[in-house]
Amino acid sequence: MVKLDDYIPIIGPEEAESIRRTAAPLRGAAVQHINSAAVGGGVAEILKRLAPLMRDVGLEPRWDVLRGTEDFFAVTKTFHNAFHGQDVSLTYDMFDTYREVSRQNLQLINKEADFVILHDQQPLGLSVLSPGHPGRWIWYCHIDPVDCHPRVWNFLRDYAARCHAAVYHLDEYVKKDLDVKAYVMPPAIDPLGDKNRDITEPERRAALKRLGVPGDLPLVVQISRFDRLKDPVGVIRSYRLAREQAPCRLVLAGGGAGDDPEGAQVLEEARIEAAGDPYIIIMELSPTADLEINALQRSAAVVVQKSVREGFGLTVTEGQWKGRPVVASPVGGIRIQVLDGKTGLAAMGDEAVADAIARLLQDTALADSLGRAGREHVRRNFILPVYLKRWLEMMAAERGV
Ligand code: UDP
Prior knowledge:
The protein is 43% helix and 14% strand. It is α/β, with parallel strands linked by helices. It folds into 2 domains: 4-188 and 383-399, 3-Layer(aba) Sandwich (Rossmann fold), CATH 3.40.50.2000; 201-381, Rossmann fold. The strands form 2 sheets. The chain has a 6-stranded parallel β-sheet, covered by helices on one side. Strands 9-8-7-10-11-12 form a 6-stranded parallel β-sheet, with helices on both faces. α7 (201-211) packs across α10. Uridine-5'-diphosphate is lined by residues 42, 195, 223-225, 254-255, 285, 293, 312-315, 318.
């Protein structure tokens, strides 16, 4: 079981002590987390590691998973798309399904919890039990809600308004027409998990060998789901322009294409664009490929994230944590992750991204210094113990302790 002390080599003993002090007034607090998936997805990833850490500092966390039906998840998938501004088609039945499944799950609520945390929109319907409940209710919005379809937002806002507070990843995501206290907590990576922990040189080499990636040329790496918003075809175009200036190989790796028809199509588009180019490696990753992702990011001369849109780019944080220089488009959360010229290079468009990649391949001193500063930026802001502290501060503020 993960413990706060395990992180002392990274955060130092004073910071660990400061986290324990922040936790002290919350000792014994019952914290109920509710989300809609025990595995898969960023929220489950975070809760898996955050809940044990909360226990280690004296809280009593409990994590429950909403039980939905196929219809319900079809509705919440539509709502999810609506959050991203898609013009979804909605029916009265969909809202009824959401209400009905929420009602069926009301028994999940711990009637004595000091905090009930509803993660994302799927469990938000449970907030009807908030009036009269003794605890503080918090809605944690893990996605960018700015362009949410108005009808979906109007429906969900009534539920969110029954909470005492809402948490967002970025200042600009705060919903102005939701009249509850807002907190901002960007997400974090776990520096001790398989995706980010230190690995030995033989481990790294063995992983690259398994993946069939040769080590003869500097690697330009983008790890992402095959999704148009990650612009894999644009990455290939940028890479081709960059290698006219400096020799390198491109690795585009990502999973999820197997069970996502659109992902499969985007993967195909990337393959067509690459047209059998031997210097471009396009690979599908299994969902358990954490060590492989770790090795690829560590082996990169440049980590790229050429997203068109991004709530918060965890792959950017992962690359920075490994001390690699990052070139990323300054969209969404990436703007607080990649401070241009300090913790990476911000570049928009095929040519600017190409020039930034080439610059880093040619100027290793710049690449090293951006990599070092990127890692420090992550250490201070985007790792699990820092995230835990932000949670504790938020809960202490909510409780008035
Ligand atoms: N990831 C993964 N396998 C893949 C592609 C991505 O495990 O094939 C991980 C990646 O390492 C990161 C997360 O999924 O931890 C993606 O988060 P990000 O915020 O970059 O993008 P999202 O997919 O949430 O839009």
